[in-house]
């Protein structure tokens, strides 16, 4: 009788382990941070979720599917690959078990959410710069992005050189305005233009299509998603940006873990698979544009 009882107990333990091996932990409400004050891989495992700041308005990058209510896009898939590595499961299991908890961020809000510990990382078109490295940790790039302009086909503008007197929309809190200025300087383009900030790409594109501004400039991938028969991208391709995963300043352990995971994803070809899935330029394709 005792043997049967022990066998039943062991079977229950094994079953429970199989159910909880790659899924949310019941400790999520009480899980915190390590004694160092920085979130570790073990902290995330205990919490049962990787907390990710993501775009929610950029088609193919980070967007909420209105039919399902779920986040989707290239950056979202990168986040799930990170979760799969942390929880030692497959990408499909990470998605099925919803091992990422996404929070919609903008260029204006993402830094503060990292700083106060509400997010483990931001995977949301965050350009890596030397200045930003003073405020946050960054991984290596997981996407290269050239910047260009969207204009109306009847504007007559093919490059920045044709935009004298234009009002050019850019993302609030981004580096785009500085990149345009540097591009003009490098190419010897002498035009006068006005810059107007927009919090969301969708707002900037809407302003362009209604004639409130004359051009909108951002990552090429972000603009392609909003193309229609009345719009075109200019011939400009400048300011290639390293898009990296951002983490809280000083969180070197988690940064290294994610950086190593990106190296594995690159070497295996998995990142290029995800880029092909979402229509994102590969590093080689970006290099060919320069």
Would you kindly provide a written description of the structure presented here, covering whatever features stand out?
- It is a single chain.
- This protein is of the alpha/beta class and 290 residues long.
- The chain has 2 domains: 31-143 and 242-282, Periplasmic binding protein-like II (D-Maltodextrin-Binding Protein, domain 2), CATH 3.40.190; 146-241, D-Maltodextrin-Binding Protein, domain 2.
- It contains 11 helices and 12 strands.
- The protein has helices at 2-20, 41-47, 74-86, 91-96, 110-115, 176-187, 201-209, 220-224, 252-268, 270-278, 283-289, and strands spanning 50-54, 57-58, 62-64, 71-72, 100-104, 121-122, 136-152, 167-171, 194-198, 215-219, 231-233, 238-248.
- The strands form 3 sheets. Strands 7, 8, 9, 10, 11 and 12 form a 6-stranded mixed sheet that branches. Strands 5-1-6 form a 3-stranded parallel sheet. The chain has a 3-stranded antiparallel sheet with strand order 2-3-4, covered by helices on one side.
- A hairpin with a 3-residue loop joins strand 2 (57-58) and strand 3 (62-64).
- The longest helix is centred in the N-terminal third of the chain and has 19 residues, at 2-20.
- The radius of gyration is 22 Å and the shape is elongated.
- The model is unreliable at 1-20 and 25-31 (pLDDT under 50).
